[in-house]
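Exercise 7.
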Amino acid sequence: MSVALVNGRVLRKDRLTQGRCVLIENGRILAIVAPSDRRARRAERCDLGGQLLLPGFIDSQVNGGGGVLFNDAPTVETIRAIGRAHRRFGTTGFLPTLISADLDVVARAIAAVRSALEAGVPGVLGIHIEGPFLNVARKGVHDPAKLRDLDASALGLLTSLTGGRTLVTLAPEVTTPQIIEKLVASGVVVSAGHTNATYAEIGTALRHGLRGFTHLFNAMSQLTGREPGAVGAALEDPSSWCGIIVDGEHTDPVVLRIALRCKAHDRFMLVTDAMPSVGTDNGSFELQGRRITVNGYACFDEDGRLAGSNIDMASCVRNAVSMLGLPLPDAVRMASEWPAEFLGLTHDTGRIAPGLKANLVLADDALNVVETWIAGRSSRDGDGG
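Solution. The predicted structure, written as tokens, is:
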């Protein structure tokens, strides 16, 4: 039975359109037609009440949510709980993210994601391995005892996931351009983060397949008068993607507005860097033996260092409009279409278009999420897990 979503304001490309019906069949968008179309008349109708119908949000950096942290228990159950927590805020696709850990833990995390994909856990797209191949000088809250250089011995592990996307955040200076090239050739998406690399080192990595920058401005060499650093390289390069956390804490909104003037908006994507507190009322949690305190959208360790965020994707989109002055379509595309492009998934998701998965968000004008669909299944019918 097909479903006809009617009476909504549908985001198509860069504008909201009215008077169109989104037809869903077998988990995908069959067509976008007039409500009078005979296929719409024969389908089960769902009246959207004039609210916003948006492409589902894609978050490539999700450490936890719903009271659980992926590092603490890299299991299918943890992935399911994280997905369920973030779905309430419009996330229909995500990468559970592992913070720097020993390689046996990385292996368990990859195995859990493989099992989650096989089990059809709603929303999971693959894995983000953030470390341990990072620079201790830019470690942030990552455990320095876990950090290591990346050599050929880890290639088999990092390229072992099939059926989903693998994103690896690394510091280019702790590996070689040839290793980056081999990762990319095996289908891994490589992003620079927690790096003290020079502008020249980042440039070399870009030429060998580096695709993005993890939480731009945070935990990376900065743009200065005599050394552009990782930030300068990221803003100058027109092809790479930059993940940004728009919570008002990780980066000042003024700085982000300046960054948005440096390269095309379609090379920025919203990420949460979410911690277990998202979707709960918890005011603190444990991270690798340290007490982390939640304060608004941000999380801090005992020394006052940022330790991920307490923000969800709907709030990131809302903040991109209010803090960065972006038009709503651009803010939404930073949370959907452009992350899909970064991950190489535009053939399958990220837009409201015929043939793509019916991964959708219904929201009111304040961007409060009312309902979501993942592969055509409504959140009102349960999470599908």
